[in-house]
Amino acid sequence: MKREIKFRAYIRDEGRLLNVNLIDFDDEYVRVWDEYGENEEEWFLKDCELIQYTGLKDMNGVDIYECDVVRFDTNVQILESEVTYYHGMFTIKKYGEKIPLFTALKVIGNKFENPELLGVEE
């Protein structure tokens, strides 16, 4: 089974999270669509943080990317945590443990645009 490879780029100086349509590692830039999906922009890789698609969707069909914050039910409590890549797989980072992704997840934001979901104040 092939996994679709997609990226988003967080433009640090502007605080924008945009969909990537080209990554040029030789010339070290990324081409992204603007917020409206109408115009292309180019940014140097050093000015961006690339965020990879996990190949999974949440319970509502929303693509799950690294750095997304997801809500999930452990049957004991409802938790919110960040999706991260660890030792060759995407995991949920919570309380120092790395938990593999599973299907009962709901994307509720991301660490860039919603740091408060992780208890981080700007």
From TrEMBL:
Recorded coiled-coil stretches: none
Gene3D superfamilies: YopX-like domains (2.30.30.290)
Organism: Latilactobacillus curvatus
Xref: InterPro entries: YopX-like_C, YopX_protein
Descriptive protein name: YopX protein domain-containing protein
YopX protein domain segment(s): 6-118
